[in-house]
Amino acid sequence: MLFTLKQIQQFQSVFTFQQYLSFIGAQFDQNTIFYQTTLICSDNIPLKKFPIIKPSNFLYQKLFEKKKKEENKHTQFSNNENNFQNKKYFLGSQKLILSDEMETFYKLVGEQNIEFILQNFKILIKEDLNRETYIQIWGESIMKITLKIKSSNQEKIGRQQILYCNHMSRQVGFFKKNFITHAKKEIIMRNFIPKESITIDMISMKATSNIFDQYYFEEKFKSQEKQELRNLTQKLINNMQKFNFPQAFKIFVPLPSNYLNLKKEVYQSIRQKQYPTANLYDEIYKNYLTYNQVISILRNFLREIIPINLFGQQNLYTFLSDIQQFIIFLRFEDQNYSDYINRLNVFSIPWMNSYFSKKKQKILISKKRTQLLPIFRFLFQQIIIPFLRHNFYITERMKDDWKLFYYRKEIWNLTIKLSLNQLTSTNLKFISPEKITTQYIGKLRIVPKPGTFRPIVTYNRKSRISKLSLNKKLLDVKYVLRNLRSQQLGFSVFGNPQIFNRLEEFKKLWIKYQTPQTYFMSMDIHKCYDSIQLEYLLKFIEESNIIQSAYVINKYYLIIRNNRQLKISKQIRDLFNIYDRTCAIPINNSQCLQKGYIEYIQQNKLAIIVNLGIQTTITFSEFLLSIKELCQNNIVQFENRYFIQTLGIPQGLNISGILCSFYIANIEKNLTRKLLGDTLIMRLTDDYCCLTFDKQNLVTFQFEIRQIQKIILEKLKKCIASIQMMIKHNIIQIKRQSILNGLEKQQIQKNQLQNPYLLKRKIANFKIKQTSTYHKNLVLIFSNQN
After folding, report:
1. What does the DSSP 8-state code read for residue 685?
2. Which fold has domain 152-410?
3. pLDDT at position 605 over 50
4. d(Cα 525, Cα 543) in Å, to the nearest integer?
């Protein structure tokens, strides 16, 4: 660590206590490990020595006096990053400086020297002699946060805005509340002009004026350029008002020929109060629009409304060609405005200044591109995105690699009616807005799934009082539950690291037994979240001894050395990866409370822990009350209606997954028979994976699961099974160099090379390990014996 910190440009002085004691000429034991491992470092202060004067008090008295003086100089610490940089002394882990070793060091160096160190240096102590982990116990943060100012050219469009709009209108076109109707209302209110007397030109002039105030006021246009741009914008708005939306939709994206039949079947299914068949769902899902259809109508719309002189003939053609990427990108992909601006020839835009100089070409191009930014921001935020949101429902589908599917709103409305009818008959109950007492309301959306649908609830809406979303409010509960991941919760695994560790152990046995025949079975818990009984969940938590009586929630920075080579004049961000972490420490764990963190760090990795001094507490009763109130008052909004969940726990919360694993782990305790031989069983939330060398073990495990299901049904006396297992695959023999479906590894890699999602991210061919599904994990383990 000493050698690494010396390579960082911002540190002028980095020494050990041993080197400092030798520098001032103090008499000490050279073999003391504490002096050899404790580091001091400073940004711009070199070492100095003062006469060694024997201290007249203890170190804790000196620090107490210093802390009292500093209270008037520093404001109370907050979450603001600038305050964090100005705050000099940390609350967390500061007690570690009050040790016997530090007291001895204080007596060796004397009053003036210790004063010099405390004022100008950071102190890092080694957390464990067997690990290269250090804790900063004094001084300004070793990590000075430097906020990177994003260039305006890298501004994101926010493509995710086009997704999941349930708004239904009788007419295609735009929302009733848009910048054109807003301008019309302003004319009526301010000028007292009757609606009949308002012309298209009057609306265009007012809308143009508003656009210039909102989008163009920051940019410096010359007077002639501004006038021409104003005329072109007014012409664009005129063209929008004249555009024939119904005719364009009939030509480019017509409703399917079987729409009326589908509508009739849906309404008949609802009237008869029958569950819709899988064929009906699949038939509706088939009627999505192709990318070419959506691109065609969008291009036609933009071609009709955008004046040629706004970009120029060739530039307009380039923009209309590039717009297809906005449609065909995957779920989480986004674009910058610069992706479109940089493709244009700025010197061929008619209304811009035609001045050209080879010497100043780069400067002129940069200036003109900056002028184009607010124009593209207006086009996307006020025209393109609202056009797609109003006329199409855009969503991903299960098991389709995050591809987006575009549905006409009329078609999607059939899906909404079917799914809502099914949900209200099982798990949701209508509630009037007047009876809602909670501030946190989830938003429900439907994701298509073969033969059915998957309800997704998100809790991103902020409370009007606390200004926090429900997920933010439950963060302390989440940190407490996160500690359960280190416990043995039945067959639970949490994430790829645990999955691969267990698979690697099983692979060693496989090789040890000379690669015997291996059998695999996977199972799924049907409607897992909806089937959880709240009374039993709370009972399991109360009776469990895993959760302690109280926790301290501590925030800290974890700074871990990366694999970059050491070079002179490096920044700390170049040599270390910095993570913002929060942990829940049991209040009876005094050792972890002093350190301020609970985390396993590899022994061969250099790491620094910097506590932020932000600590809160949560008791077991508060923890239990939060879960109880949440599950009993789970309100979700679907379109304009509100529902209360009658069964199960919410799915979209940050604590739902671990609560579900905890619940099922307690049910798994009922497994009375031990499986013979070497068998690996893993469960990721509600998905089971079983691997064994003996086929009979899988049969035994399946029988035990069936027995548990019968016991639970008898106890609960519910018509909904709490752990209804759905067997996905039969018992399949795994051979060397093959996967479940019999594909060779080379064939799997060939299929990956045909996947544009994997190709674009350069993870095709040999990056199978990055996927999280059991099937592909098994390829890694069993396809290569070595």
Report:
1. T
2. Topoisomerase I; Chain A, domain 4 (1.10.132)
3. yes
4. 24
